[in-house]
């Protein structure tokens, strides 16, 4: 039967089973022993599974057989409150030595090897160490019973360490460990040192007496600190707690500082600063978990930073303001486009609210007027027959509210009598007359109600104010839409009417008309004054003011006649209100608003904006447009029909020379030759000293050769020999095709035969211009393209196209840009955008002119009818239903005419 090699006795079956898993793999030293025989009863280890059955009985049997006392394991315990962990089946046990530091060394086997290398010395008997003075452990905790060990009892009893101190429950609140007390003392010392940094230098801590063991090994003595001071011996917390000579000296507790002075005491700014104290030697470090903050070598205690003067110098303060103010203004202030857009948005929201309120008040007042005429039933509380004063008082209050809502109409309309003309003048006059009638009715409620046939017209006045606000809202929507299109980040061009006399004289040299209205386009950077120009005075407003004077005069005459006839104030006020309410058109501002909105949408469809009526009038008189040949022909419109190479030339060199020169220009031929070389601009030759002669050709240096490219006339001027004209006419099909010559170093190299094909969209735009009898001045960079070729390509009448020469092109470039010139149109750099904007402006002008004409006719008819009824003495009997139907018919007719004229 196998025997236990430690004590020579036979092994039980359970020990055999355990020894198979423990001693078969490794050879267990004598220092290792089993510790699972006697488990504490209060914390029995739970075992589950197949190998845990009957474990309790087996352990009880083994405990009865074993009688030897187990040696202390010498394990390191971090604090007295450490919870006992479940112990494994096998655990290392270190032999106790005379030196407690050697007994608790981290690597006992390495220490043992170091001892074996030294000569043997008589072991020193360890001194008895008194237990640390700590709080009594709780009574509920019992000391751990000694465990039996399988190690023979041949070892001397004095080599065993002292009995284990009783364990305390974990996190006991009434017990503070020495290490925790020391940490608290060190933390208090740290706080005291921080409080004293600004007032006094930190005191050097007193040196502590360290009890070095007598049997200290040589490796421990040979360790040195980097700063030169000797390091204290490494001592574990468990030994430090039990050794009185290793206990730290009590540190005096500093006085508690108030919370306000935790980071130092405030000093006066005027007090002189104390000089810096000389640096002292750093204190010796301790083997603790928390170390006080010590000063580095050569560093003195920190001094409170000097405060800046209360007021900076004026020069520095001004520089600081100059440096910060641009950024602050950039963050706080909006840019001009954003500010204008925000202003338009606020105006739109305000007008929308006014329109809603004005519409509600107009409906209520119309109901009051119909009730007064007996066309609708009255409410019990506001019966004009039962309580006329309350009825007319409510009517006056509602009319006053309507006047407040329509205050912009009243302000601009009344100012239009003497200031800037306004289409709101007649609605404002009608509102004032209705207010006079309402006041008269309330003051003489019973008499007014007793007059048979008299009516109220406050509802018609409120309806006129509401529709005037609605027209202003529609106009603002058109302006806002145009401004958003202009400021969307796309590059636009501005169209201006040429007014420079020298320029007009140069352009009209080849024209039949000697004083043309020429529209020039140039790049536009900012849309300054766009909103003001869009809301500028209109021609219809000037006519409306003239008619308003007539209408007002007829109304005053009618009232005065009734007063002179003795009809009284009631009939006189009713007569004036009837004349003005019947004469003031409901569509006074709606026509201009609808025309502007349809103009903005039609022009925006082609990328154009026409700002205001003044621009519409300018565009209406335009009879000549200045455009570029690129607007008429694209790269796909030009076609290369044939190439003729002359003696000494090569077709590939001819194409490369032509593509290199034309690539530096901005014409239709540039796109054609780039398509021929398949956009491979890297194979082109560098070009120097390029000169362009409008209507003739190009000259440049390329590949160390002088390149001439142009018409027959240009090369003859340069002295290049050319073939006869019959040869040229043969290949150009009697002038139907274009001929472009290429000469290299004075010798004719090639002849290109070109053909231009017109585009469908351009043809439509040219048909619109032809219908309006507008001529075109074309600047062309292709020397082979002439007015005859353009006319033939689009089948236009003779004289409509004029190709400008070099002198005329230079005059256009040299013409000064007058900042006071009115921008007639903002459009994209496209021929369709320019012609589309012109067409939309022409339609808007015709529509608004026709509609306002119908409107003025309705006012004149109203004046005639009012004069007839005044002479008959029955104008004051005019009912609200009659006036409403009359105004509705004329307003619908004028709006229909405006819409039909702009219908495309």
What report would you give on this structure?
The chain is flat, with a radius of gyration of 55 Å. Residues 22-26, 39-52, 67-82, 84-173, 200-242 and 256-333 have low confidence and may be disordered. Helix content is 45%, strand content 9%. The chain starts with 12 loop residues before the first helix and ends with a helix. It has 904 residues and is α+β, with helices and mostly antiparallel strands. The strands form three sheets. Strands 5-15-3-4-6-13-14 form a seven-stranded mixed sheet. Helix 9 (336-372) runs antiparallel to helix 10 (388-405), helix 12 packs antiparallel against helix 18 (569-583) and helix 22 crosses helix 23 (668-676).
List keywords for this structure.
seven-stranded mixed β-sheet; six-stranded antiparallel β-sheet; 904 residues; alpha+beta
Secondary structure elements and their pairing?
Elements: H1 13-22, E1 33-34, H2 55-65, E2 90-91, H3 100-103, H4 108-117, H5 178-195, H6 218-221, H7 237-242, H8 314-332, H9 336-372, H10 388-405, H11 407-415, H12 425-443, H13 445-450, H14 458-486, E3 492-497, H15 501-507, E4 518-524, H16 530-534, H17 539-564, H18 569-583, H19 590-604, E5 608-609, H20 612-620, E6 624-628, H21 629-632, E7 638-645, H22 651-662, H23 668-676, E8 687-693, E9 697-702, E10 705-710, H24 712-717, H25 725-731, E11 738-744, E12 747-756, H26 760-771, E13 775-779, H27 787-794, E14 801-803, H28 806-814, E15 823-827, H29 831-872, H30 880-901
Parallel strand pairs: 4-6, 6-13, 13-14
Antiparallel strand pairs: 1-2, 3-4, 3-15, 5-15, 7-12, 8-9, 9-10, 10-11, 11-12
């Amino acid at each position: 039967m196998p025997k236990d090699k430690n004590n020579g006795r036979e092994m039980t079956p359970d020990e055999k089973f355990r020894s198979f898993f423990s001693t078969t793999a490794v050879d267990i030293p004598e220092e290792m022993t089993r510790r699972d025989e006697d488990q504490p009863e209060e914390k029995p280890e739970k075992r589950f599974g197949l190998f845990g059955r009957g474990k309790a009985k087996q352990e009880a049997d083994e405990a009865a057989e074993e009688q030897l006392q187990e040696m202390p394991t010498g394990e390191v315990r971090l604090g007295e409150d450490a919870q006992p962990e479940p112990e494994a089946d096998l655990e290392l046990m270190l032999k106790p030595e005379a030196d407690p530091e050697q007994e608790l060394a981290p690597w006992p086997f390495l220490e043992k090897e170091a001892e074996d290398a030294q000569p043997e010395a008589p072991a020193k008997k360890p001194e008895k160490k008194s237990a640390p003075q700590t709080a009594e452990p709780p009574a509920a905790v019992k000391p751990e019973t000694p465990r039996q060990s399988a190690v023979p009892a041949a070892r001397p009893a004095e080599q065993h360490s002292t009995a284990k101190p009783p364990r305390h429950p974990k996190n006991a609140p009434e017990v503070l460990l020495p290490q925790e007390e020391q940490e608290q003392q060190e933390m208090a010392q740290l706080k005291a040192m921080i409080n004293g940094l600004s007032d006094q230098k930190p005191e050097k801590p007193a040196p502590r007496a360290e009890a070095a063991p007598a049997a200290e090994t040589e490796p421990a003595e040979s360790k040195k600190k980097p700063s030169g001071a000797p390091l204290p011996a490494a001592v574990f917390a468990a030994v430090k707690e039990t050794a009185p000579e290793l206990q730290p000296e009590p540190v005096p507790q500093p006085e508690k500082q108030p919370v306000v002075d935790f980071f130092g005491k405030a000093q006066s700014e005027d007090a002189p600063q104390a000089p810096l104290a000389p640096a002292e030697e750093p204190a010796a470090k301790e083997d603790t978990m928390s170390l006080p903050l010590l000063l580095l070598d050569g560093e003195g205690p920190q001094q409170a930073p000097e405060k800046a003067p209360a007021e900076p110098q004026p020069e520095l303060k001004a520089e600081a303001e100059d440096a910060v103010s641009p950024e602050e203004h950039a963050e706080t202030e909006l840019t001009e486009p954003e500010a204008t857009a925000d202003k338009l948005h606020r105006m739109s929201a305000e007008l929308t609210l006014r329109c809603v309120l004005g519409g509600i008040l107009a409906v209520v007042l119309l109901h009051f007027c119909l009730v007064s005429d007996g066309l609708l039933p009255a409410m019990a509380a506001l019966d004009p027959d039962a309580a006329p004063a309350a009825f007319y008082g409510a009517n006056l209050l509602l009319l006053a509210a309507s006047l407040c809502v329509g205050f912009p109409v009243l302000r601009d309309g009344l100012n239009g009598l003497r200031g800037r003309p306004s289409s709101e003048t007649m609605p404002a006059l009608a509102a004032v007359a209705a207010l006079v009638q309402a006041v008269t009715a309330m003051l003489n409620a019973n008499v007014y109600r007793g007059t048979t046939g008299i009516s109220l017209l406050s509802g018609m006045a409120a309806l006129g104010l509401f529709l005037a606000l609605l027209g202003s809202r529609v106009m603002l929507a058109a302006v806002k839409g145009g401004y958003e299109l202009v400021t969307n980040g796309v590059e636009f061009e501005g169209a201006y009417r040429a007014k420079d006399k020298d320029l007009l004289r140069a352009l009209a040299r080849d024209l039949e008309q000697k004083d043309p209205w020429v529209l020039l386009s140039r790049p536009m950077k900012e849309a300054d004054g766009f909103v003001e120009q869009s809301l500028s005075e209109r021609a219809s407003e000037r006519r409306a003011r003239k008619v308003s004077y007539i209408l007002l005069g007829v109304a005053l005459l009618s009232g005065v006649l009734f007063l002179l006839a003795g009809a009284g104030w009631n009939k006189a006020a009713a007569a004036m209100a009837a004349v003005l309410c019947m004469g003031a058109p409901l569509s006074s501002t709606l026509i201009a608003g609808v025309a502007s909105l349809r103009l903005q949408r039609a022009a925006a469809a082609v990328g154009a904006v026409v700002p205001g009526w003044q621009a519409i009038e300018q565009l209406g008189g335009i009879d000549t447009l200045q455009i570029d040949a690129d607007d008429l022909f694209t790269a796909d419109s030009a076609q290369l029909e044939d190439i003729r190479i002359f003696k000494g030339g090569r077709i590939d060199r001819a194409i490369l020379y032509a593509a290199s020169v034309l690539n530096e220009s901005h014409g239709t031929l540039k796109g054609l030759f780039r398509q021929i070389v398949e956009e491979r601009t890297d194979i082109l030759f560098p070009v120097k000293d390029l000169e362009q002669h409008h209507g003739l050709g190009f000259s440049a240096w390329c590949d160390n050769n002088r390149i001439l490219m142009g018409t027959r006339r240009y090369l003859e001027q340069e002295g290049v020999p050319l073939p006869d004209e019959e040869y040229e006419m043969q290949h150009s099909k009697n002038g139907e095709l274009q001929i472009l010559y290429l000469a290299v170093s004075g010798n004719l190299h090639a002849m290109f035969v070109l053909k231009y094909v017109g585009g469908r969209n351009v043809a439509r735009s040219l048909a619109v211009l032809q219908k309006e009898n507008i001529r075109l001045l074309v600047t062309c960079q292709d020397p082979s393209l002439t007015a005859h070729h353009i006319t033939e390509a689009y089948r236009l009448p003779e004289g409509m196209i004029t190709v400008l020469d070099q002198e005329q092109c230079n005059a256009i470039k040299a013409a000064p840009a007058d900042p006071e010139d009115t921008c007639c149109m903002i459009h994209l750099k496209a021929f369709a955008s320019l012609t589309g904007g012109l067409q939309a402006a022409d339609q808007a002008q015709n529509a608004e002119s026709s509609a306002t004409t119908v409107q003025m006719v309705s006012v004149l008819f109203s004046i005639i009818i009012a004069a007839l009824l005044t002479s008959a003495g029955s104008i004051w009997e005019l009912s609200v239903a009659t006036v409403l139907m009359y105004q509705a018919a004329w307003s619908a007719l004028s709006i229909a005419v405006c819409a039909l004229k702009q219908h495309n």
